[in-house]
Amino acid sequence: MKLYDLELSGNCYKVRLFLALIEQPYTLVPVDFLAGAHKEAPLSDMNPFCEIPILTDGDLTLRDSQAILVYLARKYGGEAWLPTEPSAMAQVMEWLMMAENEIARGQNDARLHDKFGYELDHGLAVQKAERVLKLLEDRLEGREWLVHDRPTIADIACFPYVALGHEGRIPVGDHPNVQGWIDRIKDLPRFVGMPEL
Hints:
globular; alpha+beta; Glutaredoxin
């Protein structure tokens, strides 16, 4: 199994983190993002969207961090990380979609603007990120994890950009439930960090 990776990418990081948590061996292939390696063959052939991460496992090639998490959870992580009972699975998927949409357009866009100089509307990203923090704070009231009484890939998908929010001027601040959730993820056995986390 190979993971084509950028160290500073939160989407790549969530895959590295999950692979560590489930103790799944893999080969890390750093991508020279600044040189545009992700936009050239062979990577552009593997992912025509010219994005990373990309995961290969035998003959299978996957793009999109949420899809990769689903695959790894079902193949290697077991029921604990992605339940198969319909309502439980649907609840996990709700949070994967939040990671892909609201968190990506909130915390991630603010970070892209501030840390990497992307020309994005920082004010709009902050508004979306503040809504995300409110939703997470409410969801985590009286509970430790987003779905069930244990961590799932829902937590892993949402964690990186929320925890990195300070790099886009969106700290967790006065959201103690969110901060507690971040701390619990960091306390998981085999947790691995990334720069600024």
